[in-house]
Amino acid sequence: MLKNTLGWMAAALVCGGCSQPGSIVGMAPAELPMPKQIDVVFNHNARSRYRSPLTGEWRNGDDMEAWLIEAIDGATEEVLVAVQELSLPRVAQALIAAKHRGVLVQVILENNYRQAWSEQRPSRLNQRERQRWHQLNRLADSDRNGTTTADEVFQGDAVALLHAANIPLSDDTEDGSSGSGLMHHKFLVIDRRSVLTGSANLTSSGIHGDAGRQTTRGNVNHMLHLRSKDLAKLFRAEFQRMWGDGPGGRKDSRFGLAKRSSGPRTVMVGDARVEVLFAPHPKRNPEHGLNWLAQQLRAARRSI
Question: Shortest CA distance to 198 belongs to which of 45, 89, 53?
Answer without folding.
Answer: 45
